[in-house]
Fold this sequence. Notes:
Distance between the termini: 45 Å
Number of domains: 2
Pfam family, one: XdhC_CoxI
Organism: Piscinibacter gummiphilus
Protein name: Cytochrome oxidase I
Order of helices and strands: HEEEHEHEHEEEEEHEHEHEHEHHEH
Number of helices: 11
Strand content: 15-25%
Amino acid sequence: MENLDLAVLRQLRDWRRAERHALLATVVRTWGSSPRPVGSIMALSADGAVVGSVSGGCIEDDLVERHRHHPMAEAPPRFVTYGVTADEAHRFGLPCGGTLELLLEHDPDADALDDLVEAVSQGRLVRRAVRLSDGAVVQQPLHRPEGLRVADGVVSNTFGPAYRMLLIGAGQLAECLATMALFSGFDVTVCDPREAHRDAWSVAGAALVTGMPDDVVTAMRPDARTCIVALTHDPKLDDLALMEALRSEAFYVGAIGSRRNQVSRRERLTAHFGLTEAQMRRLHGPVGLDIGSRTPPEIAVSIMAEVIAVKNAVAAAVSRPAPVAAVT
């Protein structure tokens, strides 16, 4: 599944290349509950076609209706707010009196959009800064993601490649988890040097590599958009991946196994591989949210939920206390 932001930007670029009037809407602020996070984007063409989302659908419908009666024309960017009153919140489907503010940009420049689409398609991270007074856009490369910022008359948003998931082990659980991750918009790579395990791999869209896990993690150069999950139950493979993953910038590192196994793993990684206590605190294990999972699909749901919770900085992502002493 393509990165949603990239799909929006590509369609918007195509509309503008065809000299069709179009609008780019960006969520710049929210109060209370909001269906979409800050930084979310959607594009709207003059004939009412929509790609992307800034809400559950009602705000998109309102924007279409507004611009159907008031044709788009070249104008500076402007802010609009939805859900100021309880009636408006109910009308636009915003939960519990939520409010959101959008930045609307009329007819963004096609050449700048083309440069942005090309950069994101090639896996580069880009900051797009829009000057509110006249809509002028400056795009610069970034080394790490940044949140949306509004300051000094400029709105800056970060665009980049899809989030990545690296799975160690090509078993049934990995198949379930890879399928869920692909559906959730992650690029998925599966590492398994064991021929007998990888021969049965059947998840289209997930790359399968055969190198040793530590080499694969190192070559991947994990960043703040990368998560790594060890699923083999084989310490020789899982530990190799974890010793590199826990030293990286990956936003999530997890490992399958019981609490007893996690204690042994932590002892091995600190005693034999030199990982620090601070690095070990980054390890999610036993992996996944505690929802009583028993089957591979259920366990995959628990892992995917925890990965998304950590990605979205939800405090409840801490699923269980870390094991600190041997289980007897």
